[in-house]
Amino acid sequence: MLLEGVGRRYGARGPWVLKDVDLEVGGGTLLRVEGANGTGKSTFLRIVAGIDRPSAGRVSGRGRTAYVPERFPAALPFSTHGYLVHMGRIQGLGTATASRRADHWLERFGIGAYGGTPMDQLSKGTSQKAAVAQAFLAEPQLLVLDEAWTGLDHDARTLLDDEVRSRVAAGGTVVFVDHDPWRLAGEATAVQRVAGGRVTVVGGATAVGDRVAGRVLVEATGSGEPPVLPGGVVVEEPVVDGLLRLAVPADESDAVLRALLAARPPWHIRAVRPEAGGR
Questions:
Q1: What is the pLDDT of residue 183?
Q2: Per the database record, which ranges form the ABC transporter domain (predicted)?
């Protein structure tokens, strides 16, 4: 995805909320967006997701996109299952496939019992789970999350963390904002800050497209023997109680994660972070 000279203002004479944003985001990127309230983070995410059009410049190369907004409009004329099927259809799925995947994600987020409940009767937490579930229906290439963890219980937040890792490991791109500074701490490929209408790389973050020097620590849980890993990566530490720990070259980490997730049965990725002193 490429942003070239992107700017946004509201009204022909309004102040620029964003101006001259140039940014390239490659596949397999986890991009965290930071900034104080009111600086334009949500505007930036809406433009990235294609929900809002820039007043200047252009965005290209998004691919299939899913978006979870900061404020989810729960008062919609659908049941929970009907809403997911509707969103699946919008994302290009056939009705039968959308219905099947809706059932799957309702169960994954523990709200299968609410499939027939009207959206305007859901609690805030349950409606937020539905908002997050719709984002995974069509396996997006670009996933944009604006405070998507807010209102979720612990299990749902953990599940969302895991699904973000899975999307990135599969070569997708995830762009997110979250008020918790420890959300996916140490796992972002890059961090951008929105301030004064500009979007800039945070000091110490890895520029998009660059490789991190050193190694990445991977923790995963599963059963049986780990799969054969690419790039000559060898499992040196024994698997204890189903927990696998690896230190892998950073430029091999995406391939290793894909191999673990593609194993049968798949391994569950618990954490991915730079090795101390490895940058």
A1: 87
A2: 1-221
Residue 180 burial (CB count, 10 A):
11
Over residues 27-40, mean pLDDT: 91
Phi-psi sector, 194: left (phi>0), alpha (psi -120 to 50), beta: beta
Q: State yes or no: pLDDT of 99 exceeds 50.
A: yes
Is the CB of residue 154 less than 8 Å from the CB of residue 110? no
**Does 61 reside within a domain?**
no
> Is residue 224 one of the residues assigned to a domain?
yes
Among residues 91, 90, 95, 130, the alpha carbon closest in space to that of 109 is found at: 130
Q: What Cα–Cα distance (Å) separates residue 263 from each residue in 165, 180, 239, 269?
A: 16, 32, 16, 12
* Model confidence, pTM: 0.73
Q: Which tokens sit at 82?
A: 């009907």
Q: Are 18 and 47 in contact (CB under 8 A)?
A: yes
Do the domain assignments include residue 12?
no
Cβ proximity of 251 and 163 under 8 Å: no
Tokens at 155, concatenated: 């299990």
| CA–CA dist 122, 125 (Å, integer) | 8
Question: Cα(91)–Cα(14) distance, rounded to whole angstroms?
Answer: 33
With beta carbons less than 8 A apart as the criterion, state whether 43 and 52 touch: yes
Pick the closest to residue 136 from 68, 77, 72, 45 (CA basis): 68
Judge contact between 147 and 178, C-beta under 8 A: yes
